[in-house]
Amino acid sequence: MRDRPWARRSRPASSSASSRLVLARRRTGRPIRAHLIWGGAGLGVAIVLASLLNVVRFGSVLNTNYLHHDFRTPGISRKLEYAGALLISPSGGIFVFWLSGSLLVLAACVLPFVRRSGRRIDVRPAVVLAAASGGVVLGLASWWTPFGWTSYGPRLSLPWLLPLVLLALVAYGEELGDLVRRLVTPRRNLIAVFALGLVLTLPHVGEMWRPNASAGFFQQEQHCDAPWNGSVEGWHSCQHRLLWGDRPVGLYALHGLKTRGGVLTSVAVALGLLGSLVLLRDGLAARSNRLS
Predict the structure, then answer these.
(1) Of the candidate ranges 88-97, 211-220, 268-277, the one whose mean pLDDT is the lowest
(2) Across-strand partners of 72?
(3) What does the domain layout of the chain look like in residue ranges?
(4) Rounded Cα–Cα distance for residues 203 and 99 (Å)
(5) Gyration radius (Cα) of the chain, Å
(6) pLDDT higher than threshold 50 for residue 8
(7) Residue 191 CA to chain centroid, in angstroms?
(8) Could you tell me the CA-to-CA distances from 75 to 71, 80, 84, 143, 241 in Å, in that order?
(9) Residue in 139, 141, 150 with CA at minimum distance from that of residue 225
(10) pTM (2 decimals)?
(11) How many Cα atoms within 13 Å fall on the side-chain side of residue 135?
(12) How far apart are CA 44 and CA 49, in angstroms?
């Protein structure tokens, strides 16, 4: 496995920590100077230690091995393809692997610009969210293996989504809650959300119980050699077929559902998901009634 050249210099949680603190300060009114100082100091120490490790390994504060031109995605069209794949590819798209979180971030980016209400909505968090999300997608699309393959799912983009979801909820929790309430209040909508969520979750359950099954996804392309072992264009053509043309990785992961543990976990997940949706609907409805 190879990471991005800046992967050892930064982490998703630290990159968005200051934004979360600013939003917390705006909502609670509590001072955040001490948090910013200690958080910045910790981040600085982490960067120094990571840089020293690179000096030991490569003789430079940068990871010169990962800056090789073979590890960059060539051409604008290929970068745009990878950017789209990071979002919607059936074998690695973040909207496929965590649909609810992705939709929350997307709604938070759009909502302040389209909602018309008596209360003014601050658009600055939405701009920050959109810029951060776009930067992550374009940055990973420029890397030779934007999903961190070979492994199950989008292991490089998934860690970034959780802090973005937290930012979205802190900045626009009330507005997003209203949207979700209107979505899940009709019973048929609740059932549809449950069914879609369960269908998208089952491959993850299967992967948990039989992780080797998804290896068959990568074995579809027998000559998918890395750029330094073959050709750059051959590698990216192979990635294109895996992203769009071959059998999706989730179908291989479903083999894990045939195990006893897979069946029991699937039942538990289904009951938990349905119960959580019902509680969410009832809680949002009760909150709306109190405010009205």
Answers:
(1) 211-220
(2) 143
(3) 1-67, 68-291
(4) 13
(5) 22
(6) no
(7) 25
(8) 13, 9, 15, 12, 17
(9) 150
(10) 0.80
(11) 11
(12) 9
pLDDT, one tens digit per residue, over 100-146 is 999 999 999 999 888 766 677 889 889 999 999 999 999 999 988 89
| Angle in degrees, 0-180, between the axes of helices 232-240 and 76-88, rounded to the nearest 10 | 30
Give residue for tokens 């970034």. 160
- Looking up tokens 């479903």 gives 254
Whether 141 and 89 have beta carbons less than 8 Å apart is answered as: no
Single-letter code of the amino acid located at 73: T
- Closest-CA residue to 112 (of 94, 95, 130, 98): 130
According to DSSP, the residues that pair with 143 across neighbouring strands are 72
pLDDT in tens, 146-198: 988 778 889 899 999 999 999 899 889 889 999 999 999 999 999 999 999 99
